[in-house]
Specification:
This protein has 270 residues and is an all-alpha fold. It folds into 2 domains: 86 residues; 183 residues, no CATH class. 68% of the residues lie in helices and 0% in strands. It is built from 12 helices and no strands.
Amino acid sequence: MRELLEVIEKRGRRDLKEASESLSKQEVRYLVDTYYMMQEDRIRAAAQIRAMSETGEPHSVLEWLLEQSQILEDQIKLALDVYTMFDPVGKWSRSIKGIGPVISAGLLAHIDITRAPTVGHIWRYAGLDPTVKWGKGQKRPWNARLKVLCYKIGESFVKVKNRGSFYGEVYAERKALEQQRNEALEFKDQAEQALQEKNYGKDTDAYKWYKKGMLPPARIHARARRYAVKLFLSHWHHIAYLNHYGEEPPLPYPIAIQGHAHYISPEEAK
C-alpha cells in the first residue's frame, strides 16, 4: 500500500510540474495569495496546538489538519518553483539571497514590464513612492498585494543581512545612516508634521520620539527597508526590461536627472 501511495504521489507531482509551466498570471497571483494565507493559518494552528499540549487537551485532529496544510503549502511552492524557473527574470530573482519561488512568482505575476518604462513606475505601483498620497474617497493609487509582497521582500533582506546578502547589507548600511541623520535632527520637519497629522497619545513611544524632533525606530527601520527594496526593484526592472526589449533600460530619475547617487548595476549586487 505504501509503495502504491508513493507512485500516486510521484505521478501527482509530475502532473503538477507539467501544469505549472503554463500557469497564467491570474493563477499565479491566486496561488501566491493562497500560499501566504495558508502559511498564516498554519502558524496560528501550530500555536494553538502548543497551547493545548501544555494544558493536556486533545489535539490530534488539529495536528492532522496542520500536516495537510503543510502538504498543500509545499505543493503550491513546488508549482511556483517550476513556474519561476521557466522565466529568465524569475531565475534571476531566485539567485538573490532572501528571494524564493513564491516572491519571485509574485513579482512576475504583478508587474507588467510593458507598462513600466522606468523603475519609477514600479515603485509607484508598489506603493513605494512617498510623494503619492491616498486621499479619502479616492481609488487606491497602488497595488495593495504588490505592496505587501514588497514588505515581505524587505523583511526577508533584514533576516539575511548577516548571511552574505547584498541587499541585506544595503539595508544595514542605510539604517546606520538613517540613525545618524535622525540623531542630527535632520528629520525634525517630518516629526513635527507627524504630530500635526495624527493625534498620538502623550504616553506613547511615538509621541516621545516626535516631540524630540526625531523619528521613532520603527520609521527608521521602514525607511532603510524601503531603500533596499527599491534598489532591488531597480535591478529587477533592469533584468526584465533587458529580457523583454533586448536593450538597457533608462536610468532611474533620481540618478539620471537629479544625480543623487552612483548607479549600482545588477551585476554589482551579487
